[in-house]
Amino acid sequence: MQTMIESNDKLPPQTINVIELRNYLLKPGTRDQFINYFEEHLIHPQQGMNGYPVGQYTVKGYDDNFFWIRGFRNMEERSAFLPAFYYGDVWNEHRTIPNSMILNNDNVHLLRPMILKDNEWIASPIKILSIIPDEGIVVVDFFIANTKRKQLLEIFAKSYLPLLKKCGVDQYTLWTCEPEANDFPRLPVFQDKDLLVMITFYKDESTYDATARNINSIMTEELNADLHDAITIKNTLILYPTKNTMRQT
């Protein structure tokens, strides 16, 4: 299977171990122009330098936001990529136009994937295709568990993920903050040790809404209480992929 993140001379990695969730606030009315410029000029050059834009999105309810995901094989390659790209010829040539449309680009989370294996949570690389949708929408849930992230992960393993599976939710990935320090302060990131992020795919919004209602209707009072005890703040974004984000066969 090929994907829209391919370039002519460099294939994407099979797995990634680091992602940035980048949520930009743009000047009113410039979002579509920004997306077109970004996808025409700034995707393939990043791929050629081992930085992988794996998803570009608009955000429901936020007409001036552009959300994109960039992946890396590991933090070492991210550390090499950032200065090479942002001090390099490509960005120097193209930065004026996108920068002229950006109001704020500091809303960025640096994350690593978490895999449940033998009832234990481990940080493990994942296949890059697992965060590229075939179709439909992407839902990103941000769970802030103030001092209780370990407890929240235990609830997910024991009760919440089995409930999701029962309701037909099986296309998801889970992420926590990357603990290694960000060594490129020119691009600040959030590294919240209390954060758990879930990225889920749905066919469309009606499917998402129906699934959410089903989850709530069959959730036990005990599980509901456990989640409320562990989760201090929950924020959900509904993302619409651009045409260059969808998988292509």
Q: What is the strand content?
A: 25-35%
- Helix share, percent: 25-40%
- Structural class designation: alpha+beta
Poorly predicted spans: 1-11
Q: What gross morphology would you assign? A: globular
H/E topology pattern:
EEEHHEEHHHEEEEEHEEHHEE
Strand neighbour order, sheet with most strands: 3-5-4-13-10-12-11-7
CATH topology of the largest domain: Alpha-Beta Plaits
Q: Give the number of helices.
A: 8
Q: Label the CATH architecture of the largest domain.
A: 2-Layer Sandwich
Strand segment tally: 14
Can you walk me through this structure?
The protein has helices at residues 31-41, 44-47, 75-86, 89-94, 96-101, 149-166, 205-218, 221-230, and strands at residues 2-3, 15-16, 18-26, 52-59, 62-72, 102-104, 108-117, 120-123, 126-127, 137-144, 172-177, 195-202, 233-241, 247-248. With 249 residues, the chain is an alpha+beta fold. It has two domains: 14-108, Alpha-Beta Plaits (2-Layer Sandwich); 111-241, Alpha-Beta Plaits (2-Layer Sandwich). The strands form three sheets. An eight-stranded antiparallel beta barrel has the order 3-5-4-13-10-12-11-7, surrounded by four helices. Strands 1-14 form a two-stranded antiparallel sheet. It has a two-stranded antiparallel ribbon with strand order 2-9. The radius of gyration is 18 Å and the shape is globular. It starts with a strand and ends with a strand. Residues 1-11 have low confidence and may be disordered.
